[in-house]
Amino acid sequence: MRPPILSTVLLFLSMWDLPLAIAASWGFNDATVSVHGKKAGVGGGEKQKLVENKSLPDPVLLGESDTLKILLTTIEDKKASRPHQAFLLLREPKSNLDTSFPLSIKDSGKGKLELSHKDLPVQFSSRSQTLSASLVIASFGSSKPYRSHAFDLKIEFDPSSPPKSVDKPLRYGKLPEIHHTFKSDPKSPPKIITIVFAGAVIAALPSLLIVWLSLGANLNHTSKAFGSSPLSHTAFFLSILAMEGIFFMYYTSWNLFQTLPGAAVVGLISFLSGSRALREVQERRLAGLR
Hints:
Layout: H1 5-22, E1 26-36, E2 47-50, E3 60-62, E4 67-76, E5 79-80, E6 85-91, E7 98-102, E8 104-105, E9 110-116, H2 122-125, E10 129-138, E11 146-155, H3 191-214, H4 222-228, H5 230-252, H6 256-286
Parallel strand pairs: 3-11
Antiparallel strand pairs: 1-2, 1-4, 4-5, 4-9, 6-7, 6-10, 8-9, 10-11
């Protein structure tokens, strides 16, 4: 019994197409590399054609004022496509130090890269040397990525130009010990200044007493006031003297933390006793005694 013809044809086609699916890979075409001088116009610079898996026989020279330009079209399975990654890999053969420069790729697969001396790391741009340049193209999926040596890039410098200065790289490690200089504690004013101003205040008391008597102050009610409310008047008078004493101690030897508690206690006593003393004065005035 012969197998059906349609089944045989389909099986043959699937076996013929399987190697093609496995062989799908990334690559490029229509690729050129050129070097443009500083004064070269649009389209200036000799172009050399790049071919897959084949490097240029002669190195490409890149001077200090030149710009390297690469144009290509990335392809996947012989169709123009945009890969996930496409870059030029430069490597120094002796040290195997390398760096990469991504190509700007459009959705159509057309890519472009421009490279000059200022784009190179200091390890590659500090002296004349020849670097190995490879093209790398890859993306997600089962397609085989592309990587192959494309050309040698010779970095050249003008002998008459001064050598390029290189900044010392930042190194992390132990630093010298830091000695902090803290601000000294605030000092009280000199005692002589305090004594002078205290004397000026004491000297003004007789003048205050004279003005007080001239305004009609009546000292005859002193005994009556202390007789009616001796505790409040005495406490009020002593609290005023105590507050002056606290201020004196603050200016001579005390700090703020010593002064505030004492001032709070004396101030409270002065407030309570003063309220009661003034109430007693009000009662005498309401009684017609002035």
